[in-house]
Structures are given as structure tokens and as C-alpha cells.
């Protein structure tokens, strides 16, 4: 067995025993009470999932295996001391629970490079789609098309024992992550660069190669891509993309199906599509106000107009966070360090001053602070990736690291099919009004 797979199994099998022990010995223990309001506001705050890769604190933000984003930026291996950590290192951390050595990360990077071959029919599926189909539609379809390669599916059909499901899942996950940069870059070059494709460079790291195949070879862009891929990788298990991957995987659908489900969820405007909406909305603001340097007052009036028209302010608010997202702060820090006086970055920073008091004043919005998507587009735009309809694909490539690491864990733990109970609205009404109500829903 290869080294990383072996290390993973060594660690995970102990946790798997713990999972089974708790399930067998403590299944009757009551650990939470559920309020009706939690159910009716999207199941918020109900502990329902087991996810080991990362944990989100409403005030502190995300921690990956206990490490905050500033800690990861300091501790994970980098190619150069002044650079950003390699996302391969974060994947190793989420999988094995330890900060990897430089050698571990280089081995993982090489492993991804050797697995990166994408079968021709996946490109054929992309090419068969109209140019007008959204990059996320093409991306999800390509992932589904690649399910022909599923080793898990073949092993299952061949009758492999349940206790070995994790093994073929691991190989599917590694292959899938390895191939995503090629697929993403292919869609980018197809849509925005005249279908002039660029071959991978197997000597580059995972994120650097993605930038290369998209047509960007500067060290600046590689540094940004490494940071980008690290901060978007995971956000505990309840967000739409992570939860979708877990839910679909719980039916023993293959990892390609699970990850495609995650991507169709990420494509929604309340989730990953917000990174496109932010830039779209800012450009609309610039056009409507007829200035690239609006005053705070002009901005405030535009924000209020957006709200009055019944729209959300993209990039602001969060279902769990109650403070500025540390992923926003990490990008702000990156911009402070490497970017001087960029119009879009300046607007993003100005919005950070103007938006929160307006959202706070409305009263109902639980978190008036910016999330990851408020900043990411301005950085990509600055470095020349101006085609913002593509931005969610980049988010999706990164998110593979967390949701697919979790999927292998799910299989090692032997997690069961997920199947919560639902009731008609009448049942909930009976809980609060008794059975008198005559109006049927
Ligand atoms: N602008 C305007 N209204 C907002 C808002 C915003 N940025 N954020 C929340 N609200 C509204 C909600 O729509 C809801 O209104 P309603 O009661 O009339 O339906 C009310 O405030 C209460 O919502 P909440 O409990 O504070 O948030 P939530 O958990 O329901 O939703 C989120 C969270 C992220 C979907 C929401 O804040 C939002 O729509 N933000 C803008 C889109 C966005 O940036 N999404 C990306 C999130 C990060 C990510 O997943 N990538």
C-alpha cells in the first residue's frame, strides 16, 4: 500500500473504532434539544453531522484540524519561504491530522501529477455543450462524465466487502482531485481563450499547474492560487456543497456523483455563485453611479436600492459566522502585501466600511459582515482573470479537497445512509396550535 494511503488508514481506523463504539454504546444519549425555529430556518445549529476535516466557530471562523487560517499560512509547507502554503499540505492535514513535512507534500504533489490524465470522452462531453452553458454547468457535467473511471463502482459491482469500501474510494478521490485542474482549465480556455488549450506541466504543484493551464505563469498568480485553494477548501460539514457530497455518498453513490452533487450546490447564488455575483454587482454599481470611485454616500444609496429591490448584498452575511470571515481577512492581508492601489480592491475595502452598518440597521440579518466571496473576485480580476462567470469553478476545484477527504472518512467509519424524517406542515402546526386548525396545507 502506498505511504499516504497507509498513514491515512493507520489513523482513520482508530477513529473508525471510536465511531462504532460510540454508536453501539451511547445511541440513546440525548445531546441536544431542537427548536421549531431551527427546523424552519434551514436546520441551523442542530448537531446532525460528523465531519472531522474542519470546524467552524461563529466568532473565530474556520479551523482545519484545529489550525486557524493564519496558523496554516505559517505552518504548512511552501515552495518558497515568502510564498503561500501548498494546498496539497492542507489535504494531507485534513486526511491524516498532522502538519506534513515538505517531503510529504512534494510526494502528494507528484502523486496528483501522475494521476492527472483526463479521458478524452470528458473533453468531448464539454465540447458538446453550447458555449452559452455556464462554466459550472460544464464543470458538473464533466465530473459526471468521468464517473466511467470509478474504481469504487467497479469494486462494489465485483462484490468487495463493506470494510474495504474506503480503499477504492481513496483511489477515486485521489484521481478526481488530480484531474480537476485540467478540467477546469479546459473549460476556461474553451470559453474565454478561443479553445486554445495548454497541456499540463507535471513538474508544477497542483495549484501552480491549474494557473499554468489557464495561461498564467507568473509567480504572483501561483502564490494567489495556492492561497485561494487553501482558504476555500473546507468549511465544516453543514454547508450546501459539503453536505450534498456527504448525503449523496451515503447512498454509496461513487465519489464522482458525490462531488458533482457538491458542485451543483456550490453553483447556487446563496453559496459559491456569490463570488461571481459580487463582481457583477460591483460593475453594475459602477455603471449605475457612473463612477469608478464612488463616495461612501453614493455607495450607501446603491446598497439601499439593491435591498429595496428585494435582493441580497452578495458577499455579505453567513449562516454560521457572526464576525468578519477570516478567509476575507486573509485575502485582504494578501492584497495589502502585494497589490497597490487597484480600483476594484479599493472598492471592496470601501464596501467593508459601508455595508455592515446598513445591514445591521435592518435588524433581521444575523451577520452583517463580509464572507470569503466579498474579496476573492477582486484578486483574480487584478491578476488578469477577468471572466468572472468562471470564478465558482475555481471555488469548486478547491472545495474538492475538503469534501472528498471527508468522503473517505465516511467510508472508513462505515457511515450509514442518511435519512432524516420529514412531516407535512400540518404536523408542525399541530405541535404549536393543537389539532383545531381546519385550513389544510
Ligand atoms: N443581504 C440582504 N439580506 C440578507 C443578507 C444580505 N447579504 N444576508 C442575510 N439576509 C437576509 C436573509 O435573506 C433573510 O431574509 P428573510 O428573513 O426575509 O428571508 C434574513 O436576512 C435572515 O438571514 P440570516 O439568518 O442572517 O442568514 P441565512 O443563514 O438565512 O443566509 C446567507 C445566509 C449567506 C445565504 C445570506 O447571508 C446571504 O444571502 N448572503 C448573500 C449571498 C452570499 O454572499 N452567499 C455566500 C455565502 C458564503 C458561501 O457559501 N460561499
Poorly predicted segments: none
The CATH architecture of the domain at 274-382 can be given as Orthogonal Bundle
Q: Strands across the major sheet, in which order?
A: 1-2-3
* Helix content bin: 55-70%
Number of helices: 20
Q: Measured on Cα atoms, how large is the radius of gyration?
A: 22 Å
What is the global morphology? globular
Secondary-structure element string: HHEEEHHHHHHHHHHHHHHHHHH
- Quick one: CATH class of the domain at 274-382? Mainly Alpha
**What compounds are bound to the protein?**
amidocarboxymethyldethia coenzyme *A
- How confident is the prediction overall: mean pLDDT? 97
Q: Find the CATH superfamily of the domain at 274-382.
A: Cytochrome P450-Terp, domain 2
**Main sheet specs:** 3 strands, antiparallel
Structural classification: mainly alpha
Keywords for this entry:
single chain, 441 residues, mainly alpha, Cytochrome p450-Terp, domain 2, three-stranded antiparallel sheet, globular, binds amidocarboxymethyldethia coenzyme *A
Secondary structure: elements and pairs:
Layout: H1 3-26, H2 36-40, E1 54-57, E2 61-64, E3 67-68, H3 69-75, H4 87-96, H5 102-114, H6 120-128, H7 135-145, H8 151-157, H9 165-192, H10 206-214, H11 219-231, H12 240-250, H13 255-266, H14 274-289, H15 296-308, H16 326-338, H17 343-362, H18 373-382, H19 391-413, H20 425-433
Antiparallel strand pairs: 1-2, 2-3
Helix pairs in contact: 4-19, 5-9, 6-7, 6-9, 7-9, 7-13, 8-9, 9-10, 9-19, 10-11, 11-16, 11-19, 12-13, 12-19, 13-19, 14-18, 15-17, 16-18, 17-18
Bound molecules: amidocarboxymethyldethia coenzyme *A.
